[in-house]
Specification:
heterotrimer, A alpha/beta (about 280), B mainly alpha (about 325), C mainly alpha (about 325), B: MetI-like fold, 2 domains, two-stranded antiparallel sheet, C: mainly alpha, MetI-like fold, 10 helices, about 70% helix, globular
Chain lengths: ~280, ~325, ~325
């Protein structure tokens, strides 16, 4: 079975609604929407964790989701690839549209969804296998098993994750011997190997030291364009550095979602301004 | 990508086949889990089914009936006129279990307290393996030891007329359940937060006062669970009593008399019984009785464990 | 007495020497004695068996058949029967036990009534007396399943009688809780975020189990299987009526055959021997072999288990 990366995907769905503004200060997003939440609600039991969140994410961009602890940003992220399904007692309403499909519609192939929408977690979680086998894991699950077919793909993924040069001569050593930052890049490589369209990152650098953090941020900037990236972060400076668009969440609600520069220089909502200037959070 | 996000794909595609396989596997695994439930249900059904004639079949009831179990003081299923009196078996079981518990509970609980509160690590390194070895001794070997060695020694000490009696069986049975009670009680004691002990010692209490007034009460649910589990095992145990109790259906309060327990009666008599006869049904009835009693004890033990868990979580 | 009339407080000076806490020392001594007594009894039991049995256990004893009314010869048929019994038991037991544990760990909804009933059944199955399992083996496998099989195949009495396979299946049910519990325990040692990473990559649940979780849970599964084998080799009550025999002139070949078994052999030799003194050596030898076997198995299981715990702790 081959993964065909040559054909672009058909994209459906409306463009995100733009506020009525003068033409000069509203940048029209040039790319189609890859990922969109529409009036999305999520409940953990009786706790209303996500309140009518509507959000559009342009293809090829980097979007940062910021907000204080408990605002629902990780919950929203995990809703994109239906990882919240793993938690018992979760209820939801609304739509989550990925490349034109409502992924919560009955009959959705969740396994294929998760291949297309990859995820990198807060704490690096490589498998207790060799570096090669970590990256190859997703491919093996897809039925690609021969070393001949795997090797070029593993190399490509490690190159794209900016890790190849550091591990090229120890691919068969255990992944657990790598440093924290290397492990996280390995997890990114592992995710890239199955050729996702979208990469979700849940505070990918928060468990890493500053040097490793810089490498991850550089990597995100390299990956954008080819991939659509959504990053949850509690670090506003990071959001400002790496993202094209920023979404600010508070207590389950999406307060503001706009071009990053605008959000950080002249936010529309007072709450956003308060958060950014450090008045709370 | 060549695969669609929505099902169904064409039936021959890889992903579609995989989905079918996943569904099949999930059901196979669910069936495995169900086997535990099925097993328990089947045990209840088939043991109670073979015992049911005692309560339903008039032909059987002429010989053995619920009323008849208590009408006669004798257990003589093999004889001119078969008599199925349960009283000797019940008293026998109670005697042996009582002796076993009186022997095992203080020893196990005290030893558990010693191990968790006072013992230096080196002593614990001897005690723990000893308990594990004791736990690993099959009950037939324990019965063998009781029959060959313990009985003679006890007789020389107590000058009892019978070598194999309630005392021999009771002590051997007690030995058999010590590991159960000890392990659960010790785990419960060790789970008591160190802060409790430190608070008590800090107030000037001695180690034993702390153990007696602080640790034991805090671990009481766990110790209780251990005692109940030991009780359940004692009631249901067969081989030890079969080999060491003398198997005489005598109703008396004397620990030096031979006894016959419920479990040993089943084991001793089922081999020569005619399938479907009153004796057969009676033995299954005894089995159903044993099952019910141990089941209730286990449910009670489970409730204790729940209480322990809640208390530790809340404490 | 002070001028105000209050009693004088005891002297604040530290008492010389330590006041002897009699009840405290007594309690500590008592509990220590209890522990010592238990250890002593274990030593006595094991010592007695070792002393009286070790002379008997020779190669001929292990490899030969019993002769002259169990007064001479060996116990090979009993060893062979025990091995066959536990092998068949493991084959029946492990797939169901591991499958059930995998389902409980990864597939089950923890709050559903079905899941709760499975856990309830596992907990209570563990408390059923072994003689009741024997009754079950007789009443279900032999009288019901075996008889129905005979009837369906038009046979007289082939399946509906005590046999190796029925005894193995009975023991398999007896040990089901052990395997389920140890396997589930072992699956839990695999960190949750590995499972999430695998699923997030687009692996299916079974793929995650087969390629990631089970390989790591293997030591635990092995522990459970070994503990089950140790119990299976030692339990006599379940096989009393489901297939064990005292003396058979042949080794069991088919699953419908009866078999000799170590524990059963000890039981019969100890209680029904016509000449206690003459069969004593064989009896002690058999006990020693049985004990050695179960101890070896239990020791292996304990070592495996401590390795598992170390891995769990190492994860932090």
């Amino acid at each position: 079975m081959t993964l065909d990366t040559s054909q672009p995907l058909p994209v459906h769905g409306p463009r995100p609604k733009l506020p009525d503004r003068e033409a000069s200060d509203v940048p029209v997003p040039p790319a189609p929407t890859r990922l969109a939440a529409r009036e999305f609600n999520l409940y953990y039991g009786t706790h209303h964790a996500l309140k009518s969140v509507s959000l559009g994410i342009p293809s090829g961009s980097v979007t940062a989701i910021i907000g204080p602890s408990g605002c629902g940003k990780s919950t929203l992220l995990r809703s994109f690839n239906r990882m919240n399904d793993l938690i018992p007692g979760v209820r939801l309403m609304g739509q989550m549209v990925v490349s034109g499909h409502d992924v919560y519609a009955p009959g959705t192939d969740v396994v294929e969804l998760r291949r297309r929408v990859g995820m990198v977690f807060q704490r690096p979680n490589p498998f207790p296998k060799s570096i090669f086998e970590n990256v190859a894991f997703g491919l093996r699950m897809l039925g690609v098993n021969s070393r001949a077919e795997l090797s070029p793909r593993v190399e490509q993924s490690l190159r794209r994750a900016a890790l190849w040069d550091e591990v090229r001569d120890r691919l068969d050593r255990s992944a657990l011997q790598l440093s924290g930052g290397q492990q996280q890049r390995l997890c990114i490589a592992r995710c890239l190997a199955v050729e996702p369209e979208i990469i979700l990152m849940d505070e990918p650098a928060s468990a890493l030291d500053p040097t490793a953090t810089v490498r991850i941020e550089e990597l995100i900037l390299e990956l954008k364009g080819r991939y659509t990236i959504v990053v949850v972060t509690h670090n506003m400076q990071q959001a400002a550095r790496i993202s094209d668009r920023t979404a600010f969440m508070l207590q389950g609600e999406l307060v503001e979602h706009d071009d990053t520069r605008r959000v950080f220089t002249s936010p529309r909502e007072k709450l956003t301004e308060d958060y950014i200037t450090g008045r709370f959070g | 990508m060549s695969r669609s996000l929505t099902a169904p794909d064409s039936p021959t595609s890889v992903r579609a086949r995989q989905r079918v396989r996943e569904l099949f596997i999930e059901w196979a695994l669910r069936a495995c889990a169900f086997s535990a439930v099925a097993g328990l249900v089947l045990i209840v059904v088939f043991v109670f089914k073979e015992a049911w004639p005692i309560l339903s079949d008039p032909e059987i009831q002429k010989e053995a009936s619920l009323a008849g179990f208590f009408a006669t003081p004798l257990w003589q299923p093999v004889g001119e006129v078969p008599k199925y009196g349960l009283v000797p078996l019940l008293t026998g079981t109670v005697k042996v279990v009582l002796i076993a518990m009186l022997f095992a509970v203080p020893l196990s609980v005290l030893a558990a307290v010693y191990s968790s509160e006072f013992a230096p690590p080196r002593v614990r390194e001897v005690l723990k393996p000893a308990i594990e070895m004791l736990a690993g001794i099959p009950s037939v070997v324990m019965g063998f030891f009781a029959l060959m060695v313990l009985a003679s020694w006890l007789q020389s000490v107590t000058h009892s007329p019978m070598r194999l009696n309630a005392l021999t069986a009771g002590i051997a049975l007690g030995l058999g359940i010590i590991p159960t009670i000890f392990t659960v009680a010790e785990d419960a004691l060790r789970a008591v937060p160190k802060s409790f002990r430190e608070a008590s010692l800090g107030l000037g209490a001695s180690a034993w006062q702390t153990a007696w007034h602080v640790s034991l009460p805090a671990a009481s649910a766990g110790v209780g669970a251990g005692v109940l589990l030991g009780l359940g095992r004692a009631v249901g145990e067969t081989m030890i009593v079969l080999m060491a109790s003398g198997n005489a259906a005598i109703t008396s309060a004397d620990p030096f008399d031979s006894v016959r327990t419920l479990s040993a009666s089943i084991a001793a008599e089922l081999a020569e019984v005619v399938v479907g006869s009153a004796h057969y049904s009676t033995l299954f009835f005894l089995g159903a009785l044993l099952f019910t009693v141990t089941f209730l004890i286990n449910v009670a033990a489970g409730a204790f464990v729940e209480r322990l868990r809640k208390r530790l979580a809340g404490a | 007495m002070s001028a105000v009339g209050l009693p004088a407080l005891p002297s604040a000076a530290m008492p010389r020497g330590r006041r002897l806490d009699w009840s405290g020392a007594g309690f500590t001594l008592l509990s220590g004695l209890a522990a010592a007594l238990i250890v002593l009894m274990v030593v006595v039991i094991l010592g007695d068996v070792l002393l009286n049995g070790w002379a008997t256990v020779t190669w001929e004893f292990l490899a030969g058949a019993p002769r002259e009314g169990m007064t001479k010869g060996g116990i090979f048929p009993a060893i062979y029967g025990t091995l066959l019994l536990v092998v068949l038991m493991v084959v029946a037991l492990v797939p169901f036990g591991v499958g059930a544990a995998v389902w409980l760990h990864l597939y089950a909804r923890q709050d559903s009534w079905f899941t709760k009933s499975v856990r309830f059944a596992v907990h209570n199955l563990a408390g059923v007396p072994s003689i009741v399992f024997g009754l079950f083996g007789l009443g279900f496998f032999i009288q019901f399943i075996g008889r129905e099989m005979d009837r369906a195949m038009g046979l007289d009495v082939v399946w509906g009688q005590p046999a190796l396979m029925w005894a193995s299946l009975t023991l398999a049910l007896l040990n089901l809780p052990v395997v389920i519990v140890t396997t589930e325990e072992s699956l839990r040692t695999v960190a949750r975020d590995q499972r999430e990473a695998s699923l997030a990559l687009g692996a299916t649940r079974w793929q995650t189990v087969r390629h990631l979780l089970l390989p790591q849970a293997l030591p635990g599964i092995l522990t459970g299987a070994i503990l089950a084998v140790a119990r299976g080799a030692g339990e006599v009550a379940p096989i009393l009526f489901t297939g064990a025999a005292y003396f058979l002139p042949f080794l069991p070949k088919a699953p419908t055959d009866q078999f000799m078994e170590l524990g059963y052999h000890v039981f019969v030799l100890a209680t029904q021997s016509p000449d206690v003194d003459a069969t004593r050596p064989l009896l002690y030898g058999t006990v020693l072999v049985l004990l050695a076997l179960t101890f070896l198995l239990n020791l292996t299981a304990i070592l495996l288990r401590s390795r598992l715990r170390a891995r769990l702790l190492g994860r932090g």
